[in-house]
């Protein structure tokens, strides 16, 4: 039995209860969860912004300790600290073999099931789905071997958890996707956990101006701690005009949309200058469409693209991010602002909805 937070119905609270968890099968790993981040992606499913299989255990940003391994598992052993990847890349599909493991076709096709099409979580006879094949809002979880990335130097579980989602997504958007050049100007719309990592990534590659855009003054002030050089409060005045003003009327060289809406996608596009690179990181509600000025795209040679998981490769990039944190290059200690128990998870999401600064993390005993 494991204690878990279960989503039975969208637009309802998570229910904390005991579930049955099967032993790991071949190629699977049992993880004692150490910490799980309160990320907006899970919230979208709770709010009904996107369809999902139900009932489901959400939670896709986390870290833990390997407790047992199923037959054939070779990359980890019991006792190792691991960061969870919410994409279990198969290594064999077209996406994987062309260097895009974050888009693994087999992982996507299996959805909220394990690769054999079944679940390890049950409530009596009812199967319970595994979001991202990680299901980290539970004390223990069984995941595919590809979902665990062992780390050599033990670090705090809260910080390790962040390296499972918001850090690679944000830093990777800058370094692996947009490839921001030193000295360039950057605007970041949305200063939650992922947005602050975009800001940190831009600082890491020596952008000259890093303009944080948000509607919360508290979040903007917080962004200054992570390398933002300027702030724009989008609730005061047109954020596009403000970003243009801060970039000598030119528009930013790189813009990042990290909120997930049609309006902010359009704003990210409009804020970019000539040859501007517009990177969409946030996931908008299903069906959202953003109107883009098609002539402007050609005349100003803008580039617009999406990035998923920061276009990073979990098994290669997460250990690098751990090393960058240990070298003092990523301020993840200040990013974790609140700790909660699993019993407090609905409160934790309420705090995120209220616009509380920084990241909240569920800590398991
Ligand atoms: Zn996330
Ligand atoms: Zn694959």
UniProtKB/TrEMBL annotation:
InterPro entries: ADH-like_C, ADH-like_N, ADH_Zn_CS, ER, GroES-like_sf, NAD(P)-bd_dom_sf. It comes from marine metagenome. Keywords: Metal-binding, NAD, Oxidoreductase, Zinc. GO terms for biological process: formaldehyde catabolic process. PROSITE patterns: ADH_ZINC (PS00059). Its cofactor is Zn(2+). One of its GO terms (cellular component) is cytosol. Pfam families: ADH_N (PF08240), ADH_zinc_N (PF00107). Residues 11-362 form the Enoyl reductase (ER) domain. One of its GO terms (molecular function) is zinc ion binding. This is Enoyl reductase (ER) domain-containing protein.
């Amino acid at each position: 039995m494991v204690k878990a937070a279960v989503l039975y119905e969208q637009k309802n609270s998570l229910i904390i209860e005991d579930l049955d968890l099967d032993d790991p099968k071949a190629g699977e790993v049992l993880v004692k969860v150490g910490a799980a981040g309160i990320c907006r992606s899970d919230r979208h499913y709770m709010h009904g912004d996107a369809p999902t299989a139900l009932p489901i255990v959400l939670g896709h940003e986390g870290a833990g300790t390997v407790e047992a391994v199923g037959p054939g598992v070779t990359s980890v052993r019991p006792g190792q600290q691991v960061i969870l990847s919410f994409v279990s890349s198969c290594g064999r599909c077209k996406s994987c073999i062309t260097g895009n493991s974050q888009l693994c076709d087999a992982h996507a096709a299996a959805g909220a099931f394990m690769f054999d099409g079944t679940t390890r979580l049950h409530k009596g006879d009812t199967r319970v789905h595994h979001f991202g094949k990680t299901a980290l809002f539970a004390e223990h979880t069984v995941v595919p071997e590809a979902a665990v990335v062992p780390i050599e130097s033990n670090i705090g579980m809260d910080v390790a958890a962040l390296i499972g989602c918001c850090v690679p997504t944000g830093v990777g958007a800058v370094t692996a996707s947009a490839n921001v050049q030193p000295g360039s100007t950057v605007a970041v719309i949305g200063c939650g956990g992922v947005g602050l990592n975009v800001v940190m990534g831009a600082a890491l590659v020596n952008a000259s101006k890093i303009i944080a855009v948000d509607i919360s003054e508290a979040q903007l002030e917080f962004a200054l701690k992570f390398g933002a050089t300027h702030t724009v409060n989008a609730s005061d005045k047109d954020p596009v005009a403000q970003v243009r003003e801060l970039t000598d009327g030119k528009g930013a060289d790189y813009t990042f949309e990290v909120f997930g809406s049609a309006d902010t996608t359009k704003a990210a596009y409009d804020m970019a200058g000539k040859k501007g690179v517009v990177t969409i990181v946030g996931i908008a509600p299903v069906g959202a469409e953003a109107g883009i000025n098609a002539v402007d795209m050609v005349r100003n040679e803008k580039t617009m693209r999406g990035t998923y998981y920061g276009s990073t490769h979990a098994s290669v990039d997460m250990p690098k991010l751990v090393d960058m944190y240990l070298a003092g290059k990523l301020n993840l200690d200040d990013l974790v602002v609140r700790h909660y128990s699993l019993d407090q998870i609905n409160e934790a999401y309420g705090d995120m909805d209220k616009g509380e600064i920084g990241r909240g993390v569920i800590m398991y005993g």
